[in-house]
Amino acid sequence: MTEVYRPIDVLEKQVELINFWTRSRYKDSFNNPFQFIMNRFDIRDSQHRKVPARLSVFMGQRLNISETIFVRSNIIDRLWEFTDVYETHEHETLQREDLPMDFGFAYLERTIHILDAQGKVNAIRAILWSAEPNGIITVQMSDNRDPLDDINRAQLAEHGPDWYRVLGCDLPPLHIQAYSYGKNNQNLTVDDYDLEDNRPTITPPEERKRNIKEHIEEHVVYQNRFNHFMISLWEFMGEHIPQRLGPDRYMKKRLQRAHSPLSEVSVVQLRPYQQRSEYDPEHEPEFVPWSHRWRVREHKRRWIDKKTGELRETTVSAHVKGPEHLPLIEKDRVYNVKR
After folding, report:
1. Spatial distance between the Cα atoms of 174 and 192, rounded to a whole number of angstroms
2. pTM of the predicted protein model
3. Is the Cα torsion angle 264, 265, 266, 271 positive or negative in sign?
4. CA–CA distance, 231 with 212 (Å, rounded to integer)
5. Average pLDDT over residues 309-338
6. Which has the closest alpha carbon to 2: 104, 117, 124?
7. d(C-alpha 112, C-alpha 230), whole Å
8. How far apart are the C-alpha atoms of 171 and 162, rounded to whole Å?
9. What are the tens digits of pLDDT across the range 168-189?
10. Residue 147, helix vs strand vs coil
11. Cα–Cα distance, 165 to 145 (Å, whole number)
C-alpha cells in the first residue's frame, strides 16, 4: 500500500502528483473516462476560462495551489464511525464559505473503503477539493497498491504484480463529485441517481446494468457516508486550528527544484484526552472577570457514568454563555490561513 511515514512527506506526494499531471505521457489516458464529468460540471481551465478543462489540466493546476493536509487515523476513524449516525443541523446544503480553504489536498493516513454502484470495493487514500463558481468539486484518489480494491485486483490479474509501476501514479483518480451550492447533499436516495447513465466503462453495458440494479442501494448508503465524512471533516477543520509543519532541509531543496509554491502541511488529528484531576471537596471556584457574552454552537458532550462505567453522550443545544449584564459580541469563524 502507498504509505507516508511523516506528515511532511505528503508534500513530496503532492509534488509527484503535480509532475505526473503536467509531464507524464500517461496523464491523458485518464481524460476520456472522466471528461463527461468535467463537461457536466462545466469545469473551466483556470488560465483560459472559455475553454472546458481536461482532467489532466485541472489536476495539475489545482494541486499546485492546494493547501497540503495530512489527516490522522484517529480522526478518520472517529468521523467515519460518526457517519452511521450523522444528523445534519447546519449543513443540509453547502456554501463556499463553509470550506476551511478554497483548495485543499488531503492525504488520509488510513484508507477508506466504499462500494461503488456495481458493488465493487474502492479504496480512497487522498481527496482533492476545489471551490468552483457553481459548486465544490472533489476528486477521490485511489491507492493503486491497496489489496482490497477491486480495480487493483483486476489489474493485477491482467498485467501481473508490477502493473502499478507502468502507470507511474500511486494515487490515480477514482471518482469526481460535485457539491452544488445551495443544493441538498444529505441523506440521498436511489431516486437521486441517474441509473441510465451511459458513462464510459470497461464493464459490458448489460452486465453493468445488472450490477447497478443489484448493488445501487448499498452504494447510496456508502455515498451518503462519504458525503457526511467530507462535511464533518470540513467542519472539524473549520473549528480547530491544525498543527502546521514546515519542510525539513531535504524537502525544502526538493520543493525548490520542483519550483513548487507548497510550503507546509496542516495535520488534522484528535487532541490527546486529558484526564481531569480528582475531585477536591475543599476546592473553591476561581472568579473569572468575563468581559462579554458569546454564542456556543450545538455540540456533543460525552462523560463516563460513575455508577455503571459506561460512556454516555448528550446533545448540548446552542445557547449564549456569559453573565447576563454583559454585552453580546457576535463573532465570525476565525481562520488561520498561511501561504
Report:
1. 21
2. 0.71
3. negative
4. 26
5. 76
6. 124
7. 12
8. 15
9. 788 989 888 888 887 777 666 6
10. coil
11. 10
